[in-house]
Amino acid sequence: EFEKGASESEIKEEIQNLAAAHGRRPEELRREIIDAGQIDVIASRVFERKIAAEIINRAKIVDVAVSV
Fold first, then answer.
1. Which residues does 6 contact at the CB level (< 8 Å), separation at least 6?
2. What is the mean pLDDT of the chain?
């Protein structure tokens, strides 16, 4: 039902955010990630975040009576 994926620009943004958080250069971190074969991990993080945002966006909050 969800048609989401991780685009190259979103992966690049994720790596930039990670690099900034660790005081690293994005291109160096990207090279390390690619060399370690972990780019799929980054893509999965982006994908999971997008799916979680979509679920939250579609969620309905319903008050229910508490029965004792």
1. 42, 43, 44, 46, 47, 50
2. 92
